[in-house]
Specification:
It is a single chain. 0% of the residues lie in helices and 45% in strands. It is mainly β and 135 residues long. It has one domain. It is globular and about 60 Å long.
């Protein structure tokens, strides 16, 4: 129950994306009844390489969440002989990932963004895809 002192949490949306290389597409969005705990309104993401941002209808960032497990470039390969070591093999990035974003009333779109490494001012974040939020 929400008391009079608390503000209700912003609505949230579960987004499912598919990707191949840097090409990404939004395949599903579904409202969910949850509180988004890793939503960074100021945009701080630490060492995360990919994020999903919510933006208003002017393209201004409202917040971002890490896209954990997105755009994996290697996989673990388990040998048939259990005495041999597990190895990591480079692969072409292809797969799917899911994120839950906070979707306040002013959120109009989401964007998948490759984040420039910190300490490299010459590099900028790159939008890989921008998609409208369904209301």
């Amino acid at each position: 129950m929400i008391d009079a002192q608390q503000t209700p949490p912003a609505p949230a949306v579960r987004l499912i994306f598919e990707y191949e290389g840097d090409a990404v597409r939004l395949v599903s969005q579904q409202p969910v009844d949850t509180v988004v705990t890793d939503f960074a309104p100021g945009g701080e993401t630490g060492s995360v390489r990919y994020v999903v941002e919510t933006r208003d209808d002017h393209g201004q960032r409202l917040g971002r969440v890490p896209a954990r497990g997105a755009f994996l470039e290697s996989v673990e390969v388990f040998p048939e002989d259990h005495t041999e070591p597990i190895v990591r093999v480079d692969v072409d990035p292809r797969g799917a990932f899911t994120v839950v974003v906070s979707a306040p009333a002013e959120a109009a779109e989401v964007a998948v963004v490759r984040v420039a490494p910190s300490g490299r001012e010459a590099l900028q974040d790159v939008d890989l895809g921008t998609f409208p939020l369904e209301r």
